[in-house]
Request: fold
Amino acid sequence: YTAINGDVAGGIAIVNQLTALIGQMAPHDVARVLNTLGRLTSMSGQHEQAELYYRNAVSKSAEIPISADWTFKDKATVLNNLASMMVERGRIYEAEPLFYQATEIITNAGLAHSSLRANILDGLGEIYRAQYLYSEAYKAQKQALNIRLDLLPQSHASIGVSYSNIGLTLMHNGDFKIAANAFNKALNIQRQNGDK
Reply:
């Protein structure tokens, strides 16, 4: 619902109806509802409430055995979402260990070459850039780009995001010509996707 029409408030209202049923839900469904509420409330600017939902989802996730209903990817996604929100709020030192934990989970599960891994690498890249560790940031963001180039069509918006992230890191490092090239690639992808 939010991806289709951007109705975050409507999405929150729908998912909140499920909270009345949490006592009757399987633990993996509870974790999913909490994670979804975290994402929606974060999108609506209610960051303290979002953090509470995410932390509860992470706590619930730790109790759930891995199965067809709750996978390593699910467990890593909850951690990634909490960490990403913390990065957005400037809390990089709290986010970093969560990204590492998510990385360990998906790497051990054989999912090191996945879109989720690329998202985690982007988050780590932002953290490294904020710490002025530009070579580490570039390395993480380049890994994210390479994963996306392998998994997605060349004009996919996520590839444009990767180029933009790399451009920002290069710009902060003073590599302006290379940064401009990365930004141009990001802009071309954005235009291919209908953005002017």
